[in-house]
Amino acid sequence: MKNFNNKLAVITGAGTGMGRELARALAREGADLALCDVIDANMVETLALCEAEAAQGRRMTAHHCDVSNEDSVEAFRDALRVQHKTDHIHLLFNNAGIGSVVSFVNGSRALWERTFNTCWFGVYYCSRAFMPMLVAADEGHIINTSSVNGFWASVGKGREHTAYSSAKFAVKGFSEALMEDLAVHAPHVKVSLVMPGHIGTRMVANTIKLTGEVQVDEALGDAFEQFAPTTSAQAAEIILDGVRKERWRILVGEDAKRLDELVREDPEGAYSDAFRERLFSEGVLNTLIEPNAPS
Q1: Taking the mean position of all CA atoms in its chain, how far away is CA 84?
Q2: If phi over 0 gives left and psi between -120 and 50 gives alpha, with beta otherwise, what is residue 186?
Q3: Residue 294: what pLDDT?
Q4: Three-state secondary-structure class, residue 14
Q5: Residue-by-residue DSSP string for 237-288
């Protein structure tokens, strides 16, 4: 898929961050869009931006959808079919996610599962729901957003991250296995696995808004976006370039690339104090890693 003109793209989590910037970039390139988010006010803003930047005659729809709920996902798909008058889509960006720091040992089970279900089952439910529509197209592409936490399950010593990391590992494994499945049964549909480092998004702020998570200081949400080395717009361009080139593995950000190298270099030591200190000394994920945090 060398260009996105006249292609129909579905983007989950399109209200802010990378989802919004993917939508805006695709609108400028002449794509039709079906966008969803669970926070309606964010979705309204994204739709207005896309409509202002889109080529004339493009069809754009916004939908409320909780991707952790299969009924909600299927309702989104059914509404898309009617509003876009189509039986197929070309692009599915499984982008929605939240980022809780709840403990598996003694934290809230409901919050843990909300995070896991959004970040993993959102990918699964959407892939299930939209697979027939991707197969029905002349060419299709699924883009699944994992994370560097899909190959390195930490954001610093003493900081719980099991729900998010477990989900992102699942997304990675599913995407890699799905490539072979599609190669046999639908070779015109491709897969890309996106693994961002620290990107300037509203994920932390949105997580607080959705879950009321008391473990997270609201100021962290602003800092997470403000001090990120890669903006959401930059991330969107990297992702779309990877899709054009049919790259199955898209690392987003120099921090992601370096972390990938270091984990591959020393997988056994990847959770040691020395490894975290090396990350910090090299400036890798410095806004997330706290090497001297209490254990």
Answers
A1: 24
A2: beta
A3: 41
A4: coil
A5: HHHHHHHHTT-SEEEESHHHHHHHHHHHH-STTTTSHHHHHHHHHHTTTTTT
152-186 as b/e, with b when 16 or more CB fall inside 10 Å? bbbbbbeebbbbbbbbbbbbbebbeebeeebeeeb
For residue 295, the Cα-to-chain-centroid distance in whole angstroms is 29
214 token code pair = 């008391």
Strand pairing of 60-64 and 32-37? parallel
CATH code where residue 132 lies: 3.40.50.720
Is residue 164 a part of any domain in this protein? yes
Pair of tokens at residue 242: 């990877």
Q: Of the residues 124, 125, 164, 271, which is catalytic?
A: 164
Could you give the number of structural domains in the chain? 1
Is 164 an active-site residue?
yes
Examine residue 195 and state whether it is found in any structural domain, yes or no.
yes
User: What average pLDDT values come out for the chain (295 residues) when binned by 10 residues?
Assistant: 95 96 97 97 96 93 98 98 98 93 91 95 98 98 97 88 96 98 98 93 59 55 68 96 98 96 97 93 81 47
